[in-house]
Amino acid sequence: MLESIADLKRVKQLAKDIELERDELALQLQTKAEQNDAVLTDFDSVSEKLVTAAQQISSVRTVGEIAELRLRYGPLKILDQLEALFVQQASKTAEKSALDEVQSVHEAMDAVDTAQNALYLEQWRAKLKLAARQAPDHDLSAVFQRFNDLVRQEAQPLMDRLESELLASSWDSEDMAVPETEFRELSTKIYSLNALLLPHRNDHEIWNFQCIAHNFKIKFVYHFVNESVQKPSSVEVYFRFLEKYLDENLFKCINIFSDPTAADLTENFVHQQFINHILMPIREKVNTTLTKIATGGSNESLKTLMILISQIFIIDDALLKKHFYDGVGLVAIIPGEVLDTWLSFEIESSANQFRKIAQLSLDKSGHDLSKLLENLYAYFEPFFGLEYNKLMDYKLKTTTAIFMDLPHKYRDFLFKSREDGSASYTDEAQFEQTLWKLQNLLLVRKTIDDFGDRLSFILLTNYLNAATSSAYPSVFSDVLRLYDEAVLAVRDSIIHRLKKMMNVSLRNYFKVNEWANINSEPQQCSAELVTSLNLLVRLISTIDKFDLTRDISLAIKSELLNILVHYMMDYVVNLNKFSELGLRQLELDFIALKDSLNFSCSAVPQNAEEGVFRETLEVLKLKYKHHDFFDEFISKKYVDRREFSGIRDKLKITYSTDSELANALYRLL
Asked: Which segments of the protein form a coiled coil according to its record (predicted)?
């Protein structure tokens, strides 16, 4: 814009500037137009691609085509939905096809002549099994039952024939020749038909083994149809009959009916199933009786129930250990409430026996309790030996309430007892009573410890550790710990009684003060020591007659030796002066005391305390040894220096401390 005359001079320049701005604006307009064209082109391309994708998705017909589109377009939700629909469609199609097949088989089973059933059974079974997998939500029990009826219809004549021929042949009688091949082939045929049952065969009722066990059932019914199992001896009679039958026929059955041409009819399988099926009539008889007795309510019924259950444990244990039967025995038919009743009865029964033992004197109670525990283990061993998971908690309860609780109660009983409450007992009699306590504790502890090494309790320990995430070395660990503590406590009580009696007995000996005046060679112990020696001999003889472990006996005697050493040091050596012969008399007295302890393995010294005592006597003897090389030790300067390597080397001193050596040397000054 021109504002003055002077601006006229710049007209040309202004015109150029305006022209440049016009060109620049034109360029910007062209660029924007090109960008808009590109956007429109891209939009058209995207639209075309979307149309193409939609067409491709709408034309998809298989899961495989969906996978290809997923690779091309990524994880689209519409593809997931389509795939789910196709899978559902395929499932419904297969299900419809399966149901059509089931209907076809059902019609075929009705249409085919009975005589031709055998030709089609396996084919029909394969189709029905496949249909069951493809139509899991449909109930095919009716068609299964129809098929199973045809299988049984085919098998029944064969079963009747095998059962009849086995009975007629008396194959289970001694030294009877039987057509083994014919029986084996017939049995295998029946077994093969049995395996066709849908949805699966009942393994507790295998047709060919029902036929094989028929002879036993006939004999069992013949002998025991009128026998009442409520008689305590009845189940034992049944088992003897069963055991005799197995002894005579188990391996004969295996030889005849195991078939190497049939995949399943191995020797082991025949072994187990033969026992399993001949147990059937006994199971039925015992089960019926258990129900009757359990509702009886009388004391006699309860007693019979306990005997019956115990016999069941014995039977099952023998089947396992003697006949190697690993199936479920008779114990499986015992209801839980009956087992609870049995366990309560056994716990109360053992508690009653313990109460009787607790009334006995100490010289009998420990032995009788140990014997009771051993007898109880022998009684419960068949029960503990059964490998049946439902019994594990009952085994643990039995162990806790009987094999752990009774020893625990006995330990408490020993600690609370007061030697029959008699204050008139002499010290020696009370000492003997305490020894009985110690022996009884050791005896019962050994019994419990031995139990821990038996397989039944090792398995129970493993079960307990697994159930409680623990690491007990033995199920009896807590009881053993309590007994170890009790043994130490009673051992210390025995030592205390010994110390008390010896202290009183040695008082006259401690009063002797003529040691420095003894001037004749000693020939025997001091007269004042004779009474104490006699007492000590009696006490040690009493200890030795008890069945104590060697470590406990040694600990008592070793501690008593320490007590005697301290008495000698405190009341004799430290309170008296000694002549040379007086020291010999003291040494002779000490040897007499030590010999009275009757160590099983005697040594000199027996322990460190005796070593110190003997070394003290050797130091005191220096006063009467006239050798120059000993003179240096008998001086206050040497003692005060507390450097005793010289005297240690000369006198072979190893047990005494520097303080003990100094005390002995000071007595020489």
From this structure: 8-35
